[in-house]
Design a protein that fits this description.
Blueprint (H helix, E strand, L loop, with lengths): L3 E7 L2 E6 L2 E6 L4 E11 L2 E8 L6 E6 H7 L4 H5 L4 E4 L3
Parallel strand pairs: 1-7
Antiparallel strand pairs: 1-2, 2-3, 4-5, 5-6
Length: 90
């Protein structure tokens, strides 16, 4: 089983691919792209992001647990095999 998840964005949505699932959730309309993952800890992601209203990259925080719960996923089960998050764009 692949233990690497993929994070990206398009328009007003962030995509998180893992466990043969694609989760999409709303993000800021000013987000241009994610630049790097600084930390991943069991569903909590710290990334550097580029926004169109700031010339400098900003630290961004994504907590997947409430998103998964709202989608009726068991967060512990969904996240247990994910060890790393990469940023990829098509």
């Amino acid at each position: 089983m692949n233990n690497i998840a993929i994070l990206s964005n398009s328009g007003d949505f962030t995509s998180f691919k893992a466990n043969n699932c694609l989760l999409r959730f709303r993000t800021s309309s000013h987000l241009e792209k994610y630049l790097s993952v600084k930390e991943y800890d069991n569903g909590y992601i710290v990334v550097m992001a580029k926004y169109d209203n700031n010339t400098e990259p900003e630290e961004e925080y994504i907590d997947l647990v409430p998103i998964l719960e709202n989608l009726y996923f068991n967060p512990d089960e969904f996240l247990k095999n994910i060890k790393k998050v990469n940023i990829e764009y098509d």
